[in-house]
Design a protein that fits this description.
This protein is mainly α. About 75% of the residues lie in helices and about 0% in strands. The protein has a single domain, classed as MFS general substrate transporter like domains (Growth Hormone, Chain: A), CATH 1.20.1250.
């Protein structure tokens, strides 16, 4: 199972469905878009910090925490109609969301050593693209079927938490799974 796919489904649901969810709960369009903007701004910082943490601590642990946080921090949105709560949860969610994707090259290096990672990373990005496409489709489908977006939040949480579980099944990053091409 491709972890990148699972994570991208999880956050694409939010990126596409958050503004309509907030509007459906009586929050204005401008305030809803501002929440999404805050998420994007906060996530920029963790895109830089997370690879540093992953390289110095353990990328598997940091990636697990990113996926788990991305899955759990969306759940309050299913229960709230308060603008301030959307903003607060948005800030909390932006931290693991921003950090999730930037760890994949670090994980690749830890698992496979120093090698040309174009094919490996290319397959991961292909799966991520499929995840973004499916995740972008889900909120609209959920709305058409249920008349609301709350189930989309649960679907997002499920995919991200499933990704966290799959990360737990990975081998340790303390040993290279396959020797680098330089050692062949």
């Amino acid at each position: 199972m491709n972890i990148h796919f699972l994570g991208c489904v999880g956050h694409a649901v939010i990126l596409i469905g958050l503004v309509p969810l907030m509007i459906s709960k009586g929050i204005g369009y401008t305030d809803s878009v501002l929440c999404l903007t805050i998420i994007m701004v906060v996530s920029i910082s963790t895109r830089f910090v997370t690879p540093i943490l992953g390289d110095s601590i353990n990328p598997k642990t940091i990636m697990f925490l990113s996926f788990l946080g991305q899955g759990l921090f969306v759940i309050p949105w299913a229960f709230t109609s308060d603008k301030w709560m959307f903003y607060l949860v948005g800030i909390l969610w932006a931290i693991p969301y921003g950090g999730e994707g930037t760890l994949f090259p670090i994980m690749n290096r830890k698992y496979y050593g120093f090698f040309r990672m174009d094919t490996t990373y290319g397959w991961q990005i292909l799966a991520a693209s499929f995840g973004m496409a499916l995740g972008g489709f889900i909120p609209g489908l959920v709305f058409d079927v249920t008349g609301g977006y709350v189930y989309a939040i649960w679907i997002s949480a499920f995919f991200s938490c499933l990704g966290a579980f799959v990360i737990l099944t990975l081998e340790t990053t303390k040993k290279v799974i396959r020797p680098s091409f330089d050692n062949l």
